[in-house]
Write a structure and sequence with these properties.
Blueprint lengths: L2 E7 L5 H12 L5 E6 L16 E5 L6 H10 L5 E5 L3 E3 L4 H8 L4 E10 L10 E3 L6 E3 L8 E2 L7 E5 H6 L13 H12 L2 E12 L11 H15 L2 H10 L6 H9 L3 H11 L4 H7 L7
């Protein structure tokens, strides 16, 4: 299967050219790499290594991770789409295990083991939800073979194009940043496709203490509430909303929610998918949402 890589960047500094250089060094000649510059102001896209297979696309306006990734995917031709942050270092030999696992029947998306670029902390083997706020917790239990995991970290993972396009890409109703990786994985599981972490592949990721750009909490809260509204049953949804009942940004986030297509998307997924989110919650024993 042919592979394309989509890198989304906004003010990544020296990390962006280093990431693209690492991708060029660890993929076969001619592997398509599309960098989507989401209105960077630091000149980092101009420093991306020049190569025939590298394309830099600049958004006309700031759109965020989800829409930038969808734009990048639309500019590619590969059967496998790899989505990468602009601050990673894939280790040699990462591609073959991921693509090989995607050849297994019923597998929709895969990810490498994610380690810290600084060498601190335990490597991550996917993640799960640790509370009704939908905050996440890394799964750190090591694996010797590919293993099903609830959700894959959006910093670096691969998905079959046919599955991605069946879902219409990442949910474009998620704004700027947050929940896009969890939402896509939840959709894949509901379609009957597995998400797996592949220990034969490893990528180092720069975990930053702060973002190099501003981020409004009303936006990220909206994304959390949208995932709950689109996917969860009454019990799980109520658990999530109750956690944010006193949040100062709840009003603005809820206003964003009711004026978009969350309920239309919920109805469409219920028709399209063979499983519901309750199945997913039970499959992975996510007790905080029961």
């Amino acid at each position: 299967m042919r592979t394309s890589v989509v890198v989304v960047a906004h003010n990544e500094g020296d990390e962006l050219p280093a990431t693209v250089a690492a991708l060029l060094a660890t993929t076969p000649d001619g592997t398509e790499i599309v960098v989507v510059d989401d209105q960077s102001e630091d000149g980092s896209p101009e420093a991306v290594p020049r190569a025939p297979q590298v394309t830099v696309v600049r958004n006309a306006e700031r759109t965020g991770v989800t829409r930038s990734r969808n734009l990048g995917a639309a500019r590619t031709t590969g059967d496998v789409l790899v989505f990468s942050d602009g601050h990673v270092r894939p280790e040699p030999g990462w591609l073959e295990p991921l693509v090989g696992e995607l050849g297994a029947p019923g597998v929709g998306a895969v990810a490498p083991v994610i380690a810290s670029m600084r060498g601190d902390g335990d490597p991550g083997y996917g993640f799960t939800w640790r509370s009704p706020t939908l905050t996440t917790a890394w799964i750190t239990r090591p694996a010797d073979a590919p293993r099903a995991t609830p959700m894959l970290c959006g910093c670096f993972f691969a998905v079959r194009r046919d599955a991605f396009e069946r879902l219409g890409g990442f949910d474009a109703g998620l704004t700027l940043w947050g929940m896009e990786d969890a939402e896509l994985c939840l959709c894949l599981w509901r379609l009957g496709l597995e998400c797996r972490v592949v220990p034969g592949a490893r990528v180092r990721h720069l975990f930053r203490k702060s973002f190099p750009y501003g981020l409004a909490w009303a936006v990220t809260l909206h994304n959390t509430l949208r995932v709950a509204t689109v996917h969860f049953d009454q019990t799980a949804m109520a658990r999530v909303f109750a956690q944010y009942a006193r949040h100062p940004q709840l009003g603005e986030a809820a206003e964003r929610l009711v004026v978009n297509d969350a309920f239309e998307r919920r109805a469409w997924l219920n028709e399209e998918c063979e499983r519901n989110a309750g199945w997913f919650i039970n499959r992975f024993g996510i007790e905080v949402l029961r």
